[in-house]
Amino acid sequence: xxxxxxxxxxLLWGVAGFQIIQGKEAAEENKLIEVFHTVGSEQKTSMVEYxxxxxxxxxxxxxxxxxxxxxxxxxxxxKGMKVERTYEEKRQEVSLTKKAKHAVTTLRFxxxxxxxxxxxxxxxxxxxxKDMESALAHKKKLEKTLDDYTSQSRSSANVIGSYDGKLxxxxxxxxxxxxxxxMGAKIVTEHRDMQLYTIYAYTTYVSDYVxxxxxxxxxxxxxxYNEEEDKTYVYVATPVLGLDY
Length: 245
What we know:
By secondary structure, the protein is an alpha+beta fold.
């Protein structure tokens, strides 16, 4: 009887621990979604990106496409994919793209000749229209699916907002400091001027992080002005931006 009670107590501890972890993850996601919604005053978009090294056997071109189709199926994509193949002297790429009403998914398999070695990489991106809520869910889905195929992987969730006109440095600082404050983030490194505006920070609200010069980073803010559109774009990512801005 004593053994039964001990087992029951251990089970309760396990359930409580699982619930605490779930509650922490939900709090993280809710905080990020809340912050994402404050980025920019104009239409917002989000982007989820994944990058990993494919360390298994060398794949011929047909097998690369088959592998991407296998991944697409696991992501719930069954039809309507556009296939492209690119050949360069030391680089080959196969890509599958699926355009839906509010999302564009792209899967890529890249083969590079690097010295005497041939390296293979898998890259995935999902562009979401006005859909900050599902960005984090898509990030987890990409990780869960692609981690079975790759090593040395990294992923990011990015939100892009914009403001009309060219924000001066004071306004940019105001926007960035508000985001950092909402996330309870401590600045790790920063460069704030009109030519290059980027901030790396760390917050306990986000469990994921990367190391930069022996310091943990999991929040990245950047801004740039588009002269043709007369808009200032604000990029916020966790853990760091994978986008070209």
